[in-house]
TrEMBL record, chain A:
<comment type="pathway">
    <text>Purine metabolism; IMP biosynthesis via de novo pathway; 5-amino-1-(5-phospho-D-ribosyl)imidazole from N(2)-formyl-N(1)-(5-phospho-D-ribosyl)glycinamide: step 1/2.</text>
</comment>
<dbReference type="GO" id="GO:0004642">
    <property type="term" value="F:phosphoribosylformylglycinamidine synthase activity"/>
</dbReference>
<keyword id="KW-0067">ATP-binding</keyword>
<keyword id="KW-0378">Hydrolase</keyword>
<dbReference type="GO" id="GO:0005524">
    <property type="term" value="F:ATP binding"/>
</dbReference>
<feature type="active site">
    <location>
        <position position="204"/>
    </location>
</feature>
<feature type="active site">
    <location>
        <position position="202"/>
    </location>
</feature>
<dbReference type="InterPro" id="IPR010075">
    <property type="entry name" value="PRibForGlyAmidine_synth_PurQ"/>
</dbReference>
<feature type="active site" description="Nucleophile">
    <location>
        <position position="85"/>
    </location>
</feature>
UniProtKB/TrEMBL annotation, chain B:
<comment type="function">
    <text>Part of the phosphoribosylformylglycinamidine synthase complex involved in the purines biosynthetic pathway. Catalyzes the ATP-dependent conversion of formylglycinamide ribonucleotide (FGAR) and glutamine to yield formylglycinamidine ribonucleotide (FGAM) and glutamate. The FGAM synthase complex is composed of three subunits. PurQ produces an ammonia molecule by converting glutamine to glutamate. PurL transfers the ammonia molecule to FGAR to form FGAM in an ATP-dependent manner.</text>
</comment>
<keyword id="KW-0963">Cytoplasm</keyword>
<dbReference type="GO" id="GO:0006189">
    <property type="term" value="P:'de novo' IMP biosynthetic process"/>
</dbReference>
<dbReference type="GO" id="GO:0004642">
    <property type="term" value="F:phosphoribosylformylglycinamidine synthase activity"/>
</dbReference>
<protein>
    <recommendedName>
        <fullName>Phosphoribosylformylglycinamidine synthase subunit PurS</fullName>
        <ecNumber>6.3.5.3</ecNumber>
    </recommendedName>
</protein>
<comment type="subunit">
    <text>Part of the FGAM synthase complex composed of 1 PurL, 1 PurQ and 2 PurS subunits.</text>
</comment>
<keyword id="KW-0547">Nucleotide-binding</keyword>
<dbReference type="Pfam" id="PF02700">
    <property type="entry name" value="PurS"/>
</dbReference>
<dbReference type="GO" id="GO:0005737">
    <property type="term" value="C:cytoplasm"/>
</dbReference>
Length: 226, 83
């Protein structure tokens, strides 16, 4: 099994993701988007970065890259797909997931640690946690405010497809704990299937013990069941 | 074939927060301008050859649908003029 980490022009968290997965003994390789998905792909990471310089909108260009048609097909076949930060923007721009990640309420790039509340513990990405558990994960984005129209937001919540919400260290949500103005404090969501997830925070940056915290390991362990 | 410019204007949907416009508004107010509101939009001017203005509009519409606008947050309009 090999997890394909798709590198677009401007991706810059691809190597972090590779090292983090290797640390968890999950076989992974970086794949240049023009080379297409390898045949033995058993999982896909859309990594963070600034694909195509964030021109137009974060993730907009990468989402229209031909490899994304292959990613959508693989996702529909049940191959696990995880989009992180810019990869989350690519996921929404390519309709793998609903809604959009757009300009932070502050209109600034924000690089800080945040707390996330695990909203479901029965998905591959969160099986290592308990529902309601609070984890600390860094964010680094200028366009991370989750936006979606109210009807579709209600559907998303009815279908229980919110994976993580921003919160304080006690798990309480609210404007103070929401770093970017995301609707209903949403930090990460699921696609049509539980095997497809995107989130703005960076679990791969809190996976190697050397960096001080391993709170993000559970998310990447979602690929172990693949 | 005729030469046209299709102007595609992409705006945030009504009700979608526009932090950049808010920041710009505050900066204008710091310069002592008085204003009630400010909205920003992206404008794309696409030069193309087409059989008719309708054809040019249709192609520009498709560009907006497929890339220039994100239907989750944007509305857009297209204007076509001969050049």
């Amino acid at each position: 099994m090999t997890v394909a980490i798709i590198r677009f022009g401007g991706s810059n968290c691809d190597r972090d993701a590779e090292r983090a997965l290797e640390h968890l003994d999950i076989d992974a390789e970086i794949v240049w988007h023009e080379d297409g998905l390898p045949e033995d792909t058993t999982g896909i990471v859309l990594p963070g970065g600034f694909s195509y310089g964030d021109y137009l909108r974060g993730g907009a260009m990468a989402a229209r890259s031909p490899i994304m048609a292959e990613v959508r097909e693989a996702a529909a076949d049940g191959v696990p797909v995880l989009g992180v930060c810019n990869g989350a923007q690519v996921g929404c721009e390519s309709d793998l997931t609903e809604g959009a990640f757009t300009t932070n309420e502050s209109a600034r790039f924000q690089c800080e640690h945040v707390y996330l509340r695990v909203e479901r513990d029965d998905t591959p990405w969160t099986a290592a946690y308990d529902e309601g558990e609070v984890i600390e994960v860094p964010i680094a984005h200028g366009e991370g405010r989750y936006e979606i129209d109210d009807d579709r937001l209600a559907e998303l919540e009815d279908e229980d497809r919110v994976l993580f919400r921003y919160c304080d260290e006690n798990g309480e949500t609210g404007p103070e704990a929401n770093p970017n103005g995301s609707k209903h404090d949403i930090a990460g969501i699921l696609g049509d299937r539980d095997t497809v997830a995107v989130l703005m925070p960076h679990p791969e940056r809190v996976t190697l013990p050397d960096v001080g915290s391993t709170d993000g390991q559970g998310v990447l362990r979602g690929f172990e069941s693949a | 074939m005729t030469a046209y410019t299709a102007t595609v204007t992409v705006r945030l949907k009504h009700g979608v927060l526009d932090p950049e416009a808010e920041t710009t508004k505050r900066a204008l107010e710091r310069l002592d301008f008085e204003l009630e509101a400010l909205r920003s939009a992206d404008r794309f001017e696409v030069d193309l050859e087409a059989d008719s203005a309708d054809d040019a509009r249709e192609r520009a519409d498709e560009m907006a649908e497929r890339l220039l606008a994100n239907p989750t947050i944007h509305d857009y309009d297209v204007e076509v003029a001969e050049r």
